[in-house]
Amino acid sequence: MQIAQKTVKDTPSDKFYDVFISLLAGAQGLVEINTRLRANVALQRAFGRSRCAEQSVVQDTLNACSSHNVKQMQQALDQIYRQHSQGFAHDYQKDSQLLDVDMSGLPCGPKAAFATKGYFAKQRNRRGRQLGRVVASRYGEIVVDRLFDGKTQLTRALQPLILAAEETLQLDEQKRSRCIVRVDAAGGSLQVVNWWLSRGYLVHCKDYSGKQAKRLVKTVLQWYSDPSQPERAFGWVSEPTDAYVRPLKRIAVRCRQANGDFAYGVLISALSVQHVLALTGRPLHLSQDQAAVLLAYVRFYDQRGGIETSFKGEKQGLGIGKRSKKRFEAQ
Known about the structure:
Strand content: 15-25%
Shape: elongated
Structural class: alpha+beta
Order of helices and strands: HHHHHEEEEHHEHEHEEEEHHH
Number of strands: 10
Number of domains: 3
Oligomer: single chain
Number of helices: 12
Radius of gyration: 23 Å
Largest sheet: 10 strands, mixed
């Protein structure tokens, strides 16, 4: 990266390296560079550094970054990912690539750039930004991270996230046809699902509209109980999927709540019966067993918890929810 800042004792790259080492050493804020790295000569030597920049100088370097520098960093990370990841080396002829997409809130001060009111778990009226992520779930690898303002929801962020993942993974039309995109209800609108389908992806998500879900469950002809969760049941939606650009399967799911009422949802899937059975490790001879097939579709959606675990792990382990910069590019 070519940052518009002169070098006195440490280059901008050296200072970025100091940030990286400090994060690995458990720094919850950049101010801790002085205590966790600068005061620890042995740690500096272990990472090949003969000295450490002062934390205020490191802060100045981050604040000097521009949107062009952010783009340079993204290009560098793409190159590193392609050289060393399992996700980029995935054999699309042998098996499908599985991409999970989600967002997580990063609260920050109200004076920070693009800090707007949005959804932050258990923090009403809080301001912050949103971190969007694409994960190659078979390998537990983060393919793409992108920062958005606090009010951006997954529906709006999905297209830039998927397009960025396409660039990182260098997905052509043939590879996209072997990619499964799995996302929660926030990304299950008709417009977004049709955009995915038109680009050739295999979609497995939850319908965005709660009102539509309540209407569609009325078309279910037979319900099957979940053997491991008796309060949950599922069945095929019999209404045709004419609004979508490609044929899909829709599964209605109902769960009994504590007050005795049912909560409803509808899963949308472009996966074939044989494909979803293979993905969930079920024998293919169960393709004629409707209860087993429905359970496979529901269980495959349940398995998307890996991306949520990645957010939780970084917030607890690396403290990404506690470090914030006022400048958007610096963040």
